[in-house]
From TrEMBL:
Molecular function via GO: 4 iron, 4 sulfur cluster binding; metal ion binding; phosphogluconate dehydratase activity
Protein residues bound to [4Fe-4S] cluster: C156, C223
Gene Ontology cellular component terms for the protein in this record: cytosol
UniProt keyword annotation of Metal-binding present: yes
Cofactor(s) it depends on: [4Fe-4S] cluster
GO biological process: D-gluconate metabolic process; Entner-Doudoroff pathway through 6-phosphogluconate
Domain Dihydroxy-acid/6-phosphogluconate dehydratase C-terminal: 409-601
Protein name per UniProt: Phosphogluconate dehydratase
EC number, as in UniProt: 4.2.1.12
PANTHER family, per database record: D-XYLONATE DEHYDRATASE, PHOSPHOGLUCONATE DEHYDRATASE
Function of the molecule: Catalyzes the dehydration of 6-phospho-D-gluconate to 2-dehydro-3-deoxy-6-phospho-D-gluconate.
Catalysed conversion reaction: 6-phospho-D-gluconate = 2-dehydro-3-deoxy-6-phospho-D-gluconate + H2O
Length: 607
């Protein structure tokens, strides 16, 4: 089925807008491809260093250019549950590569920080920029120019976007992303949220809060709510960089290991030495990014991807905008209810049909491009199949059940949860922002109230504890943008604002910072651009100004006389405390050179 007119129109305008950059990018990739297997350009001394620690068999194989050599980029560390399973992957990949007639080497490691650890802490100010560090670190690993394809081991918030930026930069070779999967289900997410709110109100102590948190985050794998980490996994499948059906298989299972072996075999099949050469530059095209954005909306995914998708696309010479995302959201129905948009976790979502069901439904309605190249082969229909283990513990694909396993979790296109997606672009005299509406009840999507202004999230907590926010209020937390302090997430404010909302007050958040991928029931206008540190309109707000946030019409306005508002001098803030400590001093060059949030908030792509 051909895509709907609205999808085609957005795709065409992205292609036209991107043409100058994309042509330069593809020309660069094609010239690199034409150079042939890249170990052929290495000197004997270069190759000796590449193979010095290898077995005799691997040395002989790598020295030849007719056998593929896979470069592994890993985000392994054993502090973070999502990345701990990757400890054993390199050896599995090496053995699988030898069995398939090739070799594999760990080309390098990249950092992987956890926003769950740094929420509300100074380290969160390094979080967004870690994406660009990851891209740089992966680039260092692959710069040895000894690899015919790459396998990327990464899962969480900034890791996958950073790895995609690297994969696009090294787009002359194939790229396969291999996930670790979600941890098995623990304490239900709604119960965890309830205990957090009880703690915010002082009804339970830290012991009960810690008990609930440890029952929620209790084993290897990603957190089970549908935050940024799991949105990343969806995105890699929708964009054709995962093996079909691999996103939400739990760690430590036979199917999980079979996927790692299958991905390794495929990574060798699609090198330039094989018959199905599939460089990453051919996978990451305009259609792939449109498919990813549609997936983001249909699943109610993380607001963080609004930033990341822009930066990821730019690395591939493609220019996408928040307006593109908003227009796609307007025609993409919401088909999933996974926490924080619903009560189910990703394991229940996967069991109910998951991504293969959703992709089949979206393709049937013409809401996705089927005619794309993927690492599994041409065409997206192969991603509607379901993986099964045969008697040899190898993966085979079968037709999936065409019906939802639970329509409280995932629904067909004929019966969506709502007619539009979960993200809306907000525009008005305060600038541009985004709001995740999929988790916000319809009656709470329009808020008009006086604002209370803060320059630090800790001050919000102090005001809450003093009872100063017991009223209709829009909390404005400014000087939280990428130039000010690295654009930290402000997820730790959610329990307090949720308490106020539960008391019947009309409450919202407006900020030039970020919210977590687990953004919930409180309406939040985030990523506001221009930011306060750039003298954006948010810097001219004063306590008591009435703000109207309308998530239905897509507007964000301060209801102050235009002439008076324009005459105000933007306030400034003392940001010296954000420049030092917990490594923040190392990132000053990032803060000074970062692009605006609407351009991806990256120091790597600044016009």
């Amino acid at each position: 089925m051909s895509v709907r007119t609205e999808i085609a129109q957005v795709t065409d305008r992205i292609r036209e807008r991107s043409k100058p950059l994309r042509e330069v990018y593809l020309d660069r990739m094609n010239r690199a491809i034409d150079n042939g297997p890249h170990r052929s350009v290495l000197s004997c001394g270069n190759l000796a260093h590449v193979t010095a620690a290898c077995s005799t068999h691997d040395k002989d194989s790598i020295a030849k250019t007719d056998a593929g050599n896979i470069g592994i980029i890993t985000a392994y560390n054993d502090m973070l549950s999502a990345h701990q399973p990757f400890e054993t992957y390199p050896e599995v990949i090496r053995q699988a590569a030898r069995a398939a007639g090739g070799t594999a080497q760990v080309a390098g490691g990249v950092p992987a920080m956890c926003d769950g650890v740094t929420q509300g802490q100074p380290g969160m100010e390094l979080s967004l920029f870690s994406r660009d560090v990851i891209a740089l670190a992966a680039g260092v690993g692959l710069s040895h120019n000894a690899f015919d394809s790459a396998i990327y081991l990464g899962v969480c918030d900034k890791i996958v976007p950073g790895l995609v930026i690297a994969a696009a930069t090294f787009g002359h070779i194939p790229a396969i992303f291999v996930p670790a999967g979600p941890m098995v289900s623990g304490l239900p997410n709604d119960e965890k949220a309830r205990v957090r709110q009880q703690y915010a109100k002082g009804e339970v102590g830290r012991d009960k809060l810690l008990e609930a948190e440890m029952k929620s985050y209790h084993g290897p794998g990603t957190c089970t709510f549908y935050g940024t980490a799991n949105t990343n996994q969806m995105l890699m499948e929708f964009m054709g960089l995962h093996m079909p059906g691999s996103s939400f298989v739990n760690p430590g299972t036979p199917l999980r290991e079979a996927f790692t072996k299958l991905a390794t075999k495929r990574a060798l099949e699609i090198t330039a030495q094989g018959n199905e050469f599939t460089p990453c530059s051919a996978v990451l095209d305009e259609k792939a990014f449109v498919n990813g954005m549609v997936g983001l909306h249909a699943t109610g995914g993380s607001t963080n991807l609004v930033l990341h998708l822009v930066a990821m696309a730019r690395a591939a010479g493609i220019v996408i905008t928040w307006e593109d995302m908003s227009d796609l959201s307007a025609v993409t129905p919401s088909l999933a209810k996974v926490y924080p948009n619903g009560l189910a976790d990703v394991n229940q979502f996967h069991a109910a049909g998951g991504l293969s069901f959703m992709m089949r439904e979206l393709l049937s309605a013409g809401l996705m491009h089927e005619d794309v190249r993927t690492i599994a082969g041409d065409g997206l229909n192969r991603y509607t199949k379901e993986p099964r283990l045969n008697e040899h513990d190898e993966i085979e694909y079968v037709d999936a059940d065409p019906t939802s396993g639970n329509e409280m979790i995932v629904r067909p296109i004929s019966n969506p949860f709502q007619a539009t997606g979960g993200l809306t672009l907000l525009r008005g005299n305060l600038g541009d922002a985004v709001i995740k509406t999929s988790a916000v009840k319809p009656e709470r999507r329009v808020i008009e109230a006086p604002c209370r202004i803060f320059h630090d999230q800790g001050d919000v907590k102090t005001a809450f504890q003093a009872g100063e926010l017991e009223r209709d209020v829009i909390c404005v937390v400014r000087f939280q943008g990428p130039k000010a302090n690295g654009m930290p997430e402000l997820h730790s404010l959610t329990p307090m604002l949720g308490v106020l909302q539960d008391k019947g007050f009309k409450v919202a958040l407006v900020t030039d910072g970020r919210m977590s991928g687990a953004s919930g029931k409180v309406p939040a206008a985030i990523h506001l651009s221009p930011e306060a540190a750039d003298a954006g309109p948010i810097a001219r707000l004063r306590d008591g100004d009435v703000i109207r946030l309308d998530g239905e019409t897509g507007t964000l306005e301060v209801l102050v006389d235009a002439a008076e508002f324009a005459s105000r001098e933007p306030v400034t803030a003392d940001l010296s405390a954000n420049k030092f400590g917990i490594g923040r001093e190392l990132f000053e060059v990032f803060r000074q050179n970062v692009s605006a949030p609407a351009l991806g908030a990256s120091p790597l792509f600044v016009d």
